[in-house]
Amino acid sequence: MRSVPVVVVFVLGVLCSLGVHYLLCYLQGLSSHHDMVLHKTFSPIPYDGSDKYNNIPAPIILAEKHDLQHSSSNIEALGTISAAIEMKKTGKLDKALKLFEHAFAIAPQNADVLNAYGEFIEETQSDIISADKMYFKALISYPDHGQALVNRQRTALVVEELDRDFLRKIDDKRDKVSRIPESDPALCKAKKESYFQHIYHTVGIEGNSMSLAQTRSIVETRMAVGGKSIAEHNEILGLDLALKYINNTLINRVGDITVHDILEIHKRVLGFADPLASGMFRRTQVFVGGHIPPTPSHIIPLMDEFIAWLNSDSALRMHPLLSSVRGSKPG
User: Fold this and answer.
1) InterPro entries, alphabetically (predicted)?
2) Which end of the chain is more exposed for a tag (fewer CB within 10 A), N or C?
3) Whether residue 272 is found in the same domain as residue 318
4) How far, in Å, are 82, 120, 135, 164 from residue 87 at the CA level?
């Protein structure tokens, strides 16, 4: 008879355990549902349900786990910015700068962070150019950011005038050099040295470890440098060949450049380092860090568009430094 109560207690215990288990699962399901955060599509800051910058209804999406992590970085960055602003108000500029740098490091595309960091740079360091870059980046992330728009409109005029002044100084130096006779020994030496430096810095950007003296030696003697890879030698030789091609054939054809000319330059740049890929458009997709270059099918139309711009009146009237910068921007 004693066994009956024991069995009843055991059965009740099992039922209670199952009930508690299903209750916990249900509560966890509700919790995970509430943890889903509503975001405005492409918004750089967590969306709070209100549209502060326009009245156009935007589609709502649910953030997955990776979005939540991104959102947590934004929240931390915005909190850090608030602390930095308080530090600035109390005159602790060094601590404020470190906080701004930290916020920028964890949320480099957050428009609020970029705008606040730009304002700090402008007010405390009087660095208009760096501040303008921050406002510009903020508008790239969020074109409708009101304060960044106001700041950018103000600084853009100042930066534009600084650029014009800088270009005038370059033109003055160019004019001074052009008045020197071509036969002047000092000018010949300076042009030759500039040629070596151009090659040295160009291949150096791509990771070539050759020194300036080693670069000069390879170009002048075509002799190998001990301890350096064949690829590094070939990069220097290819660039030297491409520059000679430009100086001998294209220098007098400004405004009449063709796609074939670009491929001829490419053939010489890569002719030693990668002869099978030189002088032709790539046929496979490549990736450069977080940037995704155009697909192979888009390359030819984009190159035709680039050549049309390169030979256009607007490009020819543009300052050479500005046109070279615009022409080298990634697509």
Assistant:
1) Fido-like_dom_sf, Fido_containing, TPR-like_helical_dom_sf
2) N
3) no
4) 9, 11, 22, 36
- pLDDT tens across 236-289, in order? 999 999 999 999 999 889 999 999 999 999 999 999 999 999 999 999 999 988
Res 330: pLDDT: 54
Residue 227, classed as helix, strand or coil, is coil
46 in a structural domain: no
Where among 140, 167, 194 does a domain terminate? 167
Residue 189 sits in the same domain as residue 271: yes
Residue 98's alpha-carbon distances to 79, 81, 87, 162, 278, in angstroms, are 14, 10, 10, 28, 46
Evaluate whether 62 touches 36 at the Cβ level (below 8 Å). Answer: yes
- 288 annotated as a binding-site residue: yes
Inside any domain, residue 25: no
Q: Is 289 assigned a ligand-binding role in the annotation?
A: yes
Mean pLDDT, the chain, as a whole number?
82
What domain range is 84 assigned to?
60-167
Indicate the SS3 state at residue 32.
Answer: helix
The first and second tokens of residue 259, run together, are 């796609």
3-state secondary structure of 199: helix
Per the domain annotation, does 315 fall within a domain? yes
CATH of the domain at 193: 1.10.3290.10
The response to whether 290 counts as a known ligand-binding position is yes
pLDDT digits (tens, 9 = 90+) for 154-204: 999 999 999 999 999 999 999 999 999 999 999 999 999 999 999 999 999
Same domain as 162, residue 226: no
Whether residue 138 contacts residue 111, with contact meaning beta carbons closer than 8 Å, is answered with: yes
What is the count of structural domains for the chain?
3
Same domain, 163 and 64: yes
Q: Checking DSSP bridges between strand 60-62 and strand 38-40, what pairing results, if any?
A: antiparallel
Among 135, 167, 199, where does a domain finish?
A: 167
